[in-house]
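Figure S7 source data.
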Amino acid sequence: MNNPALKRRLALCLTPLLLALVLIGILSAQHRVTINRQAVTLRTGPGLTYAKVKHQAKSERVRIIGQRHDWYKLALSDHTVAWAPVWRVNHQTKVANGNALSEATIVIDAGHGGSDVGAEAVTDSTKAKYMEKTYTLKVAKLVAKKLRAKGARVLMTRTADQYVSLKDRPKVAERAKADAFISFHFNSSPNANEGSGVTAYYYHHNGSKQLAKLMSKAFAALPLTNLGTKFGDFYVLRENSQPAILCELGYINSKHDFKKIRSTAYQEQVADRVVAAVNRFCQLRAGK
Ligand SMILES: [Zn+2]
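Tokens for the predicted zinc ion complex:
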């Protein structure tokens, strides 16, 4: 082929064709994935509450054919359809048996933030002000870290000292179809040193009350008085269609409670109790 003009024309025709072939190859490879069935549970729908899909094979090559609120729709080799969490498919690390959290989406809500400081404590010795917003964020971050370590997908309404409106908080749970929404606060009595203890609030009976009960049971191990569960007409609970609770983790304007609230040991203990209760809740909600 000595004709340069013909060579050019041939190259012009072939280059797009080759590019298209490469692109098709990349795209089809992206939509195929191998599922380790010991690490990823497949379900009949996009959520923890759907029934498990029974299986024999240890691993399976599947095709991703869709996605709904962070669950993949998968075409299996036997031409049936199943669902799995996106974060589990992308990170197929094995999780301990009975760890329902690995399939759960949890929204953690650190109360207040930014210009909304929440309740305040004033210590006699330094006259320094301690704000509720600081401690809700500390606990929220700790809980998020521990939940993620168990494989859960965690969304936070805030991760820094910033203002987030009440309206925007439950929206995070709505959009993600979260399995649980947990809001953290600290209480305050009209006069200092008059209140003490922890409370788990619920509004709806859509799993919220059950979650509050499990949380309160877990709180029995905390060093502050357990005030049990209560009905609470809070915006973040009322305007929330997902299971939602609000935890008051002690009275910030009580010297006795604040000594605990500010200690890392107490914050760690609270976070461990929250994770245990949410895991138990997810176990009970999970489709078998
Ligand atoms: Zn508060």
